[in-house]
Amino acid sequence: MCRNCEVPSLSRRSILTGAAVLAAAAALPVSSLMTSPAAAQDAVPPADALKMLEEGNARYVANTAINRDFSVGRAERAKSQSPFASIVSCADSRIAPELVFDQGPGDLFVVRVAGNFVNEDGLASLEFGSAVLGSQLIMVLGHTACGAIRATIDVVENGTELPGHLPALADAIKPAVEAAKAAKAEDLMAAATIENVRLNVAYLKTAAPILSDLVSQGKLDVVGGVYDLATGKVGLV
Hints:
Elements: H1 12-26, H2 37-42, H3 46-61, H4 74-77, E1 85-89, H5 97-100, E2 108-112, H6 120-132, E3 137-143, H7 147-158, H8 166-182, H9 188-205, H10 210-216, E4 221-227, E5 234-236
Parallel strand pairs: 1-2, 1-3, 3-4
Antiparallel strand pairs: 4-5
Helix pairs in contact: 7-8, 8-9
């Protein structure tokens, strides 16, 4: 057995020490959380990061992707990571952000959940991506024909009761559906999809203390997009 691959046992002391470190980190200002020199050095400004995503998506749509050899740089990536953008994506199996934007391993920090909304866990992940790993752009990526949006519309319009833990998912998306209905949208599905993206973009821009601080400093931008399943194209919202 590889000795370096063995999982170390966690002693009570190590657990308490780890908790103390996390508590100390939580008390530090956002600027001091940028612990990775590589992340700070390689940080891509928001406008440049968005351009990279748009250019990558254009290659994907044209079927001229350049990221095909995923073994290149594997050893180097094992040492550290510095993704240039973070993506909030739906968990839909037909969407793979790295493919959609023609990026390789280590380029994107991806948070996925059905309905591409941000809960507390997702927010914490995105804070890590920006404050620690140096990502200066977050894109909330919705998509056409989203099953989570469709199910929530059914709940709002027909009072359908969803099984298991699905009601929590619908509750997170309801504000978008209700906003689209209030605007008397002709295509409720499309309007709710866009509204869901917009609401989560607004939430992330004002999420204190970490993301809102980075946004105010110009070190982070949050944008929205919708992926068309039929064409592969991402349109900005």
